[in-house]
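Render this sequence as a predicted structure.
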Amino acid sequence: MEQQNKQSSGLSKLQITGIVVGAMAITVVITLLIIKSWLFPSPFNPVVLSPSEALQLERKLAQFDQMGGRSYRVAPGRQQEGPTPEDLKPEAYSEKGASREIRLSEREINGMIAQNTDLASRMVVHFSSDLVSVKLLIPIDPDFPIMGGKVLKVKAGAELAFRNSRPVVILRGISVMGVPLPNAWLGGLKNIDLIQEFGSDPGFWSAFAEGVASIQVRDGSLLVVLKE
């Protein structure tokens, strides 16, 4: 009986040793993954639109040609900027038949971002119900005393909606390296309707609110309707 108890005791010790070693191994792996994600985050994979998606986006952006801005020709892997000879034909200005809707998908937004070589692998946008989320990878100058040469991972989220006949813009938060910043560091603007707070004063928020007839943010899509 005593020998059997010793064997049982010895087996229990082996089990405990195995659990401890396994836990240490898991801890080391998790620690390495955290260090990698904090100090060496992987670049984002740029969104490349298919030919049909690029053509659809080009048609949507064509509505801005009347406004005298830049004309875009979006195709997979490249972007042509600046007016074309066809765009510079003399013609009378008219708003007749012009759409006041801006309807873009999450893929289309990220596809346009991917055309910018400086942002292609550093910024990505996500649309969910009444929420616009952004992820950024910000390289730090090598001469900076802290984390010089590393890449800072920043995430931000803002509620974007239309309620009570006016747009609503609420900063939900900003996090750096996965750590949410305190509201005091954000100037006390977290969870505050910026249009309600600043829309009564002349400036950007007032003009923005007065020019928007509707905003809808859904999973994977954004719709903005402008007033006349």
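Summary. The radius of gyration is 26 Å. The CA atoms of residues 156 and 174 lie 4 Å apart.
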